[in-house]
Design brief:
- The protein has 146 residues and is mainly alpha-helical.
- The longest helix has 14 residues.
Length: 146
């Protein structure tokens, strides 16, 4: 009931939302076990693309979309991965692992060059990674058949 009342209000104010706002909404909806429409997901991700330079916001958003059983458009996914790759030096291992897990869960693939960059960045920070992050990264790469 609360979600049905508040989500339309957020969507009406979407143009004023920043990346953290979008990420928090997607994460909250997914974590609560709710599912947004494909159109709502696309609108939220479009806003994220306009405002994000934060690896955690990207990671949490892609993770949430996967948890809801939705997929970004191919173009949105490539743009999100491109942003993440450009700011990879600021990403922690969990953000990289969660992003790869989400892409694999959605049945997607990461272009080989981007995947190599993501895995190398993860490997360079593996001492900071939790065992779950290592497992998720290995599972994602294996699941994507890469």
């Amino acid at each position: 009931m609360v979600m049905q009342c508040l989500l339309p209000a957020f969507m009406q104010q979407l143009s004023a939302a920043n990346a953290q706002d979008v990420s928090n909404v997607l994460y909250s909806v997914a974590d609560a076990g709710h599912r947004l429409s494909a159109e709502q997901v696309q609108q939220l991700l479009d806003q994220l693309l306009q405002t994000s330079s934060d690896p955690q916001a990207i990671s949490n958003s892609v993770w949430a979309v996967a948890r809801m059983g939705r997929r970004p458009t191919g173009q949105q996914l490539q743009q999100l991965l491109g942003i993440l790759t450009r700011i990879l030096h600021t990403a922690n291992p969990q953000a990289i692992a969660n992003t790869l897990w989400a892409v694999a869960t959605m049945g997607g693939r990461v272009p080989d060059e981007l995947l190599q960059q993501l895995v190398l960045a993860f490997a360079s920070k593996v001492q900071q990674a939790a065992p779950q992050d290592v497992k998720d990264t290995l599972w994602a790469v294996a699941t994507m058949g890469q």
